[in-house]
Amino acid sequence: MTKPVVEFQAGPAPTELVIKDITVGEGKEAVPGGTVEVHYVGVEFDSGEEFDSSWKRGETIVFPLRGLIQGWQDGIPGMKVGGRRQLTIPPELAYGPAGAGHHLSGKALVFVIDLIDVLS
């Protein structure tokens, strides 16, 4: 598996979560509130600038979906292990409106997520 390239999306940012399966997996399915192991890259919708990547750190990350931004909580369930999915997330489902205290507040975000394992 190689680090994905996130394609720049022209036009205005979406106002709702956009889920696009790049590769459909064949393994266990992620469930709401479950714990998953993923590789991911995140870019800002407007600039295409990468702000975070597990690939850059050279290792996957394991976490419960409950602790994540709403766009991940809504966008990962239904994925199957081995799948790669792109989530385009409006600010309301990411880090909130501008001025909400996070450096990504007010920004639409794009993540490409590889589901490595489902732990619960």
Automatic annotation (TrEMBL):
<dbReference type="InterPro" id="IPR046357">
    <property type="entry name" value="PPIase_dom_sf"/>
</dbReference>
<protein>
    <recommendedName>
        <fullName>Peptidyl-prolyl cis-trans isomerase</fullName>
        <ecNumber>5.2.1.8</ecNumber>
    </recommendedName>
</protein>
<keyword id="KW-0697">Rotamase</keyword>
<comment type="similarity">
    <text>Belongs to the FKBP-type PPIase family.</text>
</comment>
<keyword id="KW-0413">Isomerase</keyword>
<feature type="domain" description="PPIase FKBP-type">
    <location>
        <begin position="33"/>
        <end position="119"/>
    </location>
</feature>
<dbReference type="GO" id="GO:0003755">
    <property type="term" value="F:peptidyl-prolyl cis-trans isomerase activity"/>
</dbReference>
<dbReference type="InterPro" id="IPR001179">
    <property type="entry name" value="PPIase_FKBP_dom"/>
</dbReference>
<dbReference type="Pfam" id="PF00254">
    <property type="entry name" value="FKBP_C"/>
</dbReference>
